[in-house]
Amino acid sequence: MSKSYLSAPHFHNEEAAYKFIESRIWPNGPICPHCGGVEKNRKMQGRSTRIGVYKCYDCRKPFRVTVGTIFEASHIPLNVWLQAIFLVATSKKGVSSNQLHRMLGITLKSAWFMSHRIREAMRENGLEVFGVEGGDVEVDETFIGHDRTIKPKGVKKGRGYHHKNKVLSLIDRSTGKAKSIVVDDLKAKTLLPILQANIAREARILTDEAGQYRYLRMHFRDHGFVKHGLGEYVSKSDPTKHTNIIEGFFSVFKRGMKGVYQHCGHNHLHRYLAEFDFRYNNRKALGVEDQERAEKLLQGVKGKRLTYQTTAQ
Ligand SMILES: [Zn+2]
Questions:
Q1: Which letter does DSSP use for residue 212 in this model?
Q2: 262 alpha carbon – ligand 1 mean position (Å)
Q3: Which of 138, 182, 218, 282 meets the CB 3.0–4.6 Å disulfide criterion with 246?
Q4: pLDDT of 313
């Protein structure tokens, strides 16, 4: 029988966890975060020294690999952080703070703070333009939860989409990647600048028949659409005209949001989207296995220091 990946020492021993993270963040050896020095960094070995402390003999300041990362200023042992990262990276629909609290034996508040920071590490810069070289890009929107920043309109309380959080997603069929954005409304004038900023002009856009997408042909090489209202999911004349890939992406996202996270406020929704985009963009079908996805997540911990204030509701 092969050994469980979870038996690796970096999940159980804080010193091993430091070594594991150091080898990834400092592949060429320690770098002093104060002066950038790489030559004269020595590991502090004394009995009273905390784990993972180095001293830079250029600027004479101590430092650890956690400086400037999501781990900074956290009291949770680094090996427990690595357990949480592995769980979040490998669970298709996510892991709730409550579950992390129970599985890892940490307080609910710590688990909640931890999951927000891990989500931050999963946030990609989003600068990649979709549909370059004339590729196909599927575009669709979905509604999730209740946007409590919007007052209900009229008497039809709870009906329609007005009061819901609105998410616009794009999928580049050539790369297989998704990008999701929280939008204020679904008006063409709101969506167009977002689409133009994220999709190459030479792309072909694929949507359903919704009115907000009607004018896209004027702004991109081509626009194909299917009439979901008439039960058309794949065009008979051109079977490449459909939005089935993005529908599949939304179904994982919605099952995760409903089943695992239950609800989330409007101001945090973009963080959850980053999490679902990250796992989708690093999924097995693209050749990324669980361990590699966790490694990739770990690469995102740098420069993502979050304070309690920025995650508080
Ligand atoms: Zn230094």
A1: G
A2: 46
A3: 138
A4: 39
